[in-house]
Amino acid sequence: MLLQRLKYLLPSHRRSEESDMRAELESLAAMAGPGELGNIARAAEEARAAWGWTWLEQLWRDLQYAFRTLRHNPGFTLTAVLSLALGIGANTAIFSLIDALMLRQLPVHHPQELVLLKMQAPHTDSPAEDSFSYQIATALAEQRDIFSGVCGFSGAGFDVGPRGSVSHVEGAWITGGCYQTLGLSPAVGRLIDRTDDQPGAPPVAVLSYGYWQRQFGSNPAAIGQAIEVNSIPATIVGVSPRGFSGASVGAAADITFAAAEMPRLVPAFAAFLTPGNFWLRILARPREGVSIPQAKAHLAAVWPQISERVISPEWPADRRKEMADSTLDFAPGGVGYSYLREQFGRPLLVLMAVAGLVLLIACANVASLLLARATARQREISVRLAIGAGRGRIIRQLLTESTLLSAIGAALGIWLSWLCSRFLVDTLSGGQAPVTIDLTPNWHVLAFACAVAFANGILFGLAPAFQTTVIGRSGMLKQDTRTTHSHSRLLSSLVSAQVALSLLLLVGAGLFVRTLENLLRLDPGFQREGVLVVDLDGQREGYQDARLTAFYSDLLDRARRVPGVASASISSHTPLSGWTWTEAVAPKGQPVPQRDNAVFIAAGPNYFATMRTPILAGREFDGLDRGSPNVAIVNQAFAANHFPGRNPLGQYVTATVTNPPSDLQIVGVVKDSVGENLRIAPRPTVYVSYFQRASRTDSLEIRAAGSISQIAAAIHKELQPSFPKTPIDVRPLTAQVEQTLVEERLMAKLAGGFGALGLMLASVGLYGLLAYSVVRRTKEIGVRMALGAQRGAVVWLVARRALGLVIAGVAVGLPLAWLLSRKVQSMLFGLTANDAGVMAAAVASMGGAGLVAAYLPARRAARVDPMTALRHE
Amino acid sequence: MDLLQGTLDMLVLKTLLMEPLHGYGIAKAIRANSSEALEIEFGSLYPALKRLELKGWIAAKWETSEHNRRAKYYRLTPAGRKQLQAEHSKWAGFVSAVGQIMGPLPEGGK
Lengths: 873, 110
Fold this sequence. Notes:
The structure holds 2 protein chains of 2 kinds. Chain A is α+β, with helices and mostly antiparallel strands.
């Protein structure tokens, strides 16, 4: 029976069925007397209903009708579709990013079973740590009655290729149990297992499927091939399955090594395998049959013993105790780990809300368009009701129209969002590490867009549909002033709501744009323009100890001699590089605290001159500071902390720069300059002489006196020959500063864009309403003019209406903005969430937009010819 | 006379038990067999035929009528026969139950 009915969906079957029915009815009509059979068409219609697909046919007819009406009103359709496309597109773009970063499950075996480990220190409010040491990861993997597998992983960058043709490849370090924990099987070859994660095991690499495709043309012969990684020969043993590029979302790993290979591949990071270094994220799979609470309880019971084993013996007693008292917690691990989630999670949710507001404005636009048009269609609908169409049927038809509109809008919006999301990923990638996110629309995103579109179609279609049909039922074909009034009241409140919403958006845009401006304008304590930075890693080139220092000194000398270089220096760290060095320090004679309390930077001669950091007292390091006594330069914050009201020059501090701590004489005080982040006030900082400390990975700072790009090229040409194994990167310090502002830039760009979009949509709504009311009031305007009203008065009539709508919107929007903006206070910098300037600017631009929207309707009103208007009656 | 809900299907099946008929013939037969008491509207009869056909209780075939006209003749299928039996016994039960209650009305009863 169902099969029979399904057959009627086939057009060919239905056609033959139709013609058969027609022939039968004709033959019967021929036999019967005239009129004896009654209304044959109706009988046929009801017979068709037996097939059960009448609703589908009606829908099809409604759709055809809707298409025709939309095509005949191109202006209306274009405005409505564009409004919706922008609204839906903005939402889909942000949602696709949220989906990719926070919602999408890793392409692994039963991802929902995985947990991400977190460690919460006792008695602190600080957020739980998600980094663990290699020792902890290994010890947890041994807890076979809790976990069936434990996977520790961390991002990495490798220099791959033979001398001379080295390229940088993003990769990962993993512990031996990783692939087994995730339940992955190789696309080709084998994956890394426990035997590879042992000291002394031969270095083997697993490639991502994408990298294997790009670099090896998917050739299975790549397996077993030798590659040079950081100038160390390694063997490719396998390719991970297609679609999997590591457990870190947003940081695709193209080449993966076992963590135990770290000392060999990156000698500078050898210490990472010691107990004191926390750098691995851990995903674990609880054993089958062990519930999460059971696993947690069991882990809590064994943790004190584990922590005893894995704590660094160098740690002071209170830190050891703190770790033993820490609790291990599980977060859902199926979505993997992403540092982007912490950084961008909140901004993205704020943006999602903002995009939601844009959509609401767009919806209001379409609703008021439909409402205005419903008034125009009053006559048509009254006629249809009068000749016997059911009210439900007409409402259904009107809803079909609005849903069709939003479906077209959604299709366009998905396309727009796909364009935008590339721009979003580019913005995100401006940071310290490239971001790779797959944003091809997937079913999540498509389902989201469809749901939004469908909900919209119903939402903004329903009110106009009901209104129109209610009026129609009274059977009145003439314009009814009372209902027109209720229409225009609804229209005005829709437009005022749009104004209120776009005011919210404008305030948001103002706050985030000003935040970015404030950060860019902030005096960081150094002058970033004109400075080039070169990171050096001489250990990879085979230099050690004294030879390394000599190598760096030679590079510095050569850089200084490059034409156009005003000054150059060398330091252990550069500002805003993401790396810091901390030690414990106290004025000599006072006990050195157990925890690090100051930032340390080793700086060479001319460092402050090159960075243009003002020296407030004393001197800067010079070439003589190679020998003893050990000297130090401190910043204002340090001086104020440790030598309040005293002159620190000539005083001694004791610092843990060596073991045991050594004494340093303060020879200078410099202005504070930012270190980790522009938002964080400079911390107490001690600069030690570069040459009084063992060199490791350091950086050159070069102040250019001419064109920065030319000098960068010249420096690169001069220094690269000394680094046959690693490509060097000469980059402007400004770029390094910009990199720390990715989040702020994203917020400023998007909030600004959405603000502009909202303003535009609200202006269109306002314009539409004013234009409509001018048309409706043509007669009244004509009468006024005939009675002697000046054109100015008529213009004022329209402008007053516009201002009234804007003021009503502002009256609602401003208090809302005042309440809501506080939710983003923590994301702002240099202004409060209720900044009066931002609020005033938002109101002013809304008012300006209102007047612009009023201009055309006002002009049309002023041109009304009284005679024509009156004759119209 | 109005028909009880669902009675029409039963009447059609019963009518087709005797011989295959076309749509107009069924209407005429019901009228004739009820001594003109039941006037079936073609507008109701025709959709009922389609419904019964879709359920597989009757089947249709183009044939030539006694007046040498082509028409679509409906006949009862085995499934339709079974259905008729079921409906018939239900109907008989219903009639006898109602008959017991109603009985003959006493003369001049209140």
